Amino acid sequence: ELFFRARLYKLEGDYEKAIETYEEYRLHNTYSTNAVIYNRMAESYISDKQFDKAESILKELLNSFPFDPTTYYHLALVYQEQGKFNEAQTSLKIANNIWENADETYLMAQKAKSLYNQLEVTL
């Protein structure tokens, strides 16, 4: 219930409450992977334009889950917002390599490819 409540807070734009609820969920549910929870927290920080906090969480997450493409995608979003386009592109290359054989209907893989293509034009 906490996980979905946090998602609802995020959709409503109450990012601080979403982050608090994700943190509460993480403390009470050891059976869920931290990668999922921390990526959701990072999404909330990104939506709230707290890019430094999102970057910190994502980099910490990569220490434990170095092959999580969703984390690389979110990190690319942070870098893009910070104007670090080369770093964003590097993160997207990693995510796209991991998602190389993903089903073409997989939304996250499509978003990563699309963002990479946008950055190609920018650079």
Could you walk me through the main structural features you see in this protein, from its secondary elements to its overall organization?
By secondary structure, the chain is mainly α. The chain has seven helices and no strands. It has helices at residues 2-12, 15-28, 34-47, 51-64, 69-81, 85-98, 107-122.
The overall pLDDT average reads 92
Helix content: over 70%
Report low-confidence residues grouped into runs of 5 or more.
none
Give the overall silhouette. globular
What's the helix and strand layout?
Layout: H1 2-12, H2 15-28, H3 34-47, H4 51-64, H5 69-81, H6 85-98, H7 107-122
Helix pairs in contact: 1-2, 2-3, 3-4, 3-5, 4-5, 5-6, 6-7
In short:
By secondary structure, the chain is an all-alpha fold. 78% of the residues lie in helices and 0% in strands.
Key words describing this protein structure:
single chain, mainly alpha, globular
